[in-house]
Write a structure and sequence with these properties.
The chain has 155 residues and is an alpha+beta fold. Helices cover 32% and strands 33% of the residues.
C-alpha cells in the first residue's frame, strides 16, 4: 500500500508542475517617459496560469487634454488571461477607462495571446525557456503510463 501512495504522490507532483508560465509585468509611459511608480519590471516577475489561460500582452495608448496641455499615455501589460477576441477586450478596456471619468482621444489598443511558456516577454528580458507547455501533459501521460506499468510488474 505504501508503494501505491508513493506512485500517486509522484504522479500528482508531475502533473501539478505543468502549468503555463507567463510574465506578469507592466510599463506605463506619459509623453514617452516611463513612469516608474506605475511600472513593474518583467525580469523575475512570472506567474503560473490557471488551466485554459493564455499569456497576454495588451497595449493601450490615448491622449488626454488636461486643461490645455495634451498628455499622451501608453501602457503595456503582460499577464495570464482567458482568451477573448481583440475587439471585445479593447472595447472592455475603453469602457472601463471612460466609466472612470477619463476623457480620451486617439484611443488605440492591441491584444496578443500566446500559449508557450514566457512567450509574452518584453524584448528586454532574456527568456531562458521557450518549451511548449502543450507538450507537458503528453510527457506526464507517458510518465504516468510508465509508473502504472512498473507498478503492475512488481505488484
Amino acid at each position: 500500500m505504501k508503494y501505491i501512495e508513493t506512485i500517486f504522490t509522484l504522479t500528482f507532483l508531475i502533473w501539478s508542475g505543468q502549468a503555463l508560465r507567463c510574465y506578469q509585468c507592466s510599463e506605463s509611459k506619459v509623453n514617452g517617459k516611463v513612469v516608474a511608480e506605475r511600472s513593474v519590471a518583467c525580469k523575475g516577475s512570472t506567474q503560473s496560469c490557471q488551466k485554459g489561460s493564455s499569456c497576454l500582452t495588451s497595449t493601450l495608448s490615448f491622449s488626454v487634454d488636461m486643461g490645455g496641455t495634451v498628455a499622451d499615455f501608453e501602457t503595456t501589460g503582460r499577464m495570464c488571461a482567458e482568451k477573448m477576441k481583440e475587439n471585445a477586450a479593447c472595447r472592455l478596456m475603453k469602457t472601463s477607462l471612460a466609466d472612470s471619468g477619463v476623457d480620451m482621444e486617439d484611443f488605440k489598443c492591441s491584444v496578443k495571446y500566446c500559449r508557450t511558456n514566457l512567450c509574452n516577454a518584453d524584448g528586454k528580458t532574456k527568456v531562458k525557456s521557450q518549451k511548449n507547455s502543450v507538450q507537458a501533459p503528453r510527457i506526464s501521460s507517458l510518465v504516468l503510463t510508465f509508473l502504472l506499468t512498473l507498478y503492475s510488474v512488481f505488484f
